[in-house]
């Protein structure tokens, strides 16, 4: 059962990672993806909006799909919402498994699907006051689609 | 029927959610979208580009031909950009 968390607060990556191995000896590897807010083009902050209820449901489904495709011993997805400053983390994906291939592939799958199948929207606020909604990227759709073609 | 708007659809309509009672002939997401667009100039602006709008029915993504019914929670939003 994956740990799914949507929160405004910062998270502790080391503690989350340690929780996946605590008290067990069957884990051979923990893979991680940490998404960080880049400060391109005078970005002052990123504001993350989501659809409470549907977000947790969508993330739970994506994690369940990862657990069905790979033999994971643990899985954690934490996504921040609200105002996020350049340099701060946005999203954490952790996957633990007996062997590295499953952990690495599952973490890539989770972030690829999360980007196209979970109801989050980013708004960029710039130094000087301009703001704009981030548009969805074709390459994100392509990255997600590569996991649909393949049987896990 | 409860309607929720997110991101720039919320900004353009000026509301985050509303209760509506569309006419009986509105049976799917596409029909509902076209009907909602007639409610105000803000709604018209929000729904102007149908290609840029996604929807969910009862918190599951739904295609334009997905049926809608009284009591549903229906959300309209742009393509998602999380991660």
Task: Explain how this protein is built.
The complex is a heterodimer of chains A (152) and B (83). Chain A is an alpha+beta fold. Chain A has a single domain, classed as Aldehyde Oxidoreductase, domain 3, CATH 3.90.1170. Chain A is built from 4 helices and 8 strands. Chain A has helices spanning 13-21, 54-69, 100-117, 138-149, and strands at 3-7, 29-36, 43-50, 72-80, 82-84, 89-97, 120-126, 131-133. In chain A, the strands form 2 sheets. A 4-stranded mixed sheet of chain A has the order 1-4-6-2, with helices on both faces. In chain A, a hairpin with a 4-residue loop joins strand 7 (120-126) and strand 8. Chain A is globular and about 50 Å long. The mean pLDDT of chain A is 95. Chain B has one domain (2-77): Roll (Ubiquitin-like (UB roll)), CATH 3.10.20.30. In chain B, 24% of the residues lie in helices and 23% in strands. Chain B has helices at residues 8-13, 29-36, 41-46; strands spanning 2-5, 17-19, 54-57, 60-62, 73-77. Chain B has a 5-stranded mixed sheet with strand order 2-1-5-3-4. Chains A and B meet through strand 3, helix 3 and strand 7 of A and loops of B.
């Amino acid at each position: 059962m994956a740990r799914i968390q949507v929160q405004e607060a910062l998270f502790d990556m080391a503690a989350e990672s340690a929780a996946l191995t605590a008290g067990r000896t069957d884990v051979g590897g923990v893979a991680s993806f940490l998404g960080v807010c880049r400060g391109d083009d005078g970005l002052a902050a990123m504001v993350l909006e989501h659809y409470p209820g549907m977000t947790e449901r969508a993330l739970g489904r994506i994690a369940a799909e990862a657990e069905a495709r790979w033999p994971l011993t643990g899985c954690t997805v934490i996504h921040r919402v609200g105002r996020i400053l350049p340099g701060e983390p946005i999203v954490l994906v952790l996957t633990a498994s007996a062997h590295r291939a499953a952990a690495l592939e599952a973490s890539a799958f989770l972030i690829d699907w999360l980007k196209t199948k979970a109801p989050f929207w980013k708004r960029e606020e710039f130094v000087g006051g301009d703001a704009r909604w981030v548009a969805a990227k074709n390459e994100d759709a392509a990255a997600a689609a590569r996991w649909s073609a393949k049987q896990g | 029927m409860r309607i929720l708007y997110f991101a720039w659809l919320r900004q353009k309509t000026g509301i985050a959610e509303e209760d509506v009672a569309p006419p009986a002939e509105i049976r799917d997401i596409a029909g509902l979208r076209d009907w909602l667009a007639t409610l105000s100039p803000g709604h018209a602006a929000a729904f102007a580009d149908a290609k840029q709008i996604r929807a969910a029915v009862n918190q599951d993504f739904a295609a334009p031909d997905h049926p809608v019914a009284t009591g549903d929670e229906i959300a309209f939003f742009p393509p998602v950009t999380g991660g």
